[in-house]
Amino acid sequence: MKRVRNAPIDPDDLKPLFYWAGLTLHACQQLEHGTKVLLVTMAEFGFGGFRLDDAIAIIEDEQKKTLGQILEHLQQRVKISEGWSTSLKEGLRSRNRFIHGFLTDSIERVVDPATRDEVIADVKAIRRVVLDGDHAVRQMLETLFAYGGLDWKRLNEQWADEVRAMNRPANDEWDGSQEPGPG
Do residues 164 and 156 lie in contact, with contact meaning Cβ atoms separated by under 8 Å? Predict the structure, then answer.
């Protein structure tokens, strides 16, 4: 059998796809993490009969639960608005579509320069839906934090400062009073 050799793909031609795929993967992880934080926060406040030790066991993978099972668990115990519920379900569906083989299933369109932009458009659309689900999670967290007397905006600012500090090179002299540089 004769081996078929495809023309090599210039790696620069794939950079836009890799860029959007990376952002979409990050959005998927963000949705998953936010949902776990929501579960623990609800347990912390005693909503829905969640126990904190059970919630922690789930997020620490001591009790295996898929993201879908976690969302179902939340919806069984707490009434979630129709808008939030729809955003979560669609976000989960899009997350699963992307995580469980979207790029592999699209490989023929990826290698064809005529259809590669379609794949990028699909990845962007998936990301938008996942981010809508994540936005619903953040709105629920903001509501819970306000209920608990916590300042959501200030907490987010503190978290952003911590992330910036973690991502700053060790030899950087940045003191937080100016915008970080590109290094």
Answer: no
